[in-house]
Amino acid sequence: xxxxxxxxxxxxxxxxxxxxxxxxxxxxxxxxxxxxxxxxxxxxxxxxxxxxxxxxxxxxxxxxxxxxxxxxxxxxxxxxxxxxxxxxxxxxxxxxxxxxxxxxxxxxxxx
Length: 111
Known about the structure:
By secondary structure, the chain is an alpha/beta fold. The protein is about 45% helix and about 15% strand. It has a three-stranded parallel β-sheet with strand order 2-1-3. Strand 1 (about 35-40), helix 3 and strand 2 form a beta-alpha-beta unit. The relative contact order is 0.17.
């Protein structure tokens, strides 16, 4: 994981570490399964179906779960569908969302 962190800017490192801590704290929720299904949208270069390890943030997420004994399986979807699949329980989680006013309007029906 240290190789990933060396290539990040300080603000991105802070965000990645926060994400890492959050993911570690919820990893117990998937104790009955060794696979965690995460729905995501493409956000190159952070999460990208065409990049090695699905992008460096996806790689970081996978590494955090691997340390807890889990394998992550990513399901690339349009962003609204990725959110909807996680919100309705079709997937275990969705990853890497930023707070924006537009996002609040799009997904206000699900919250």
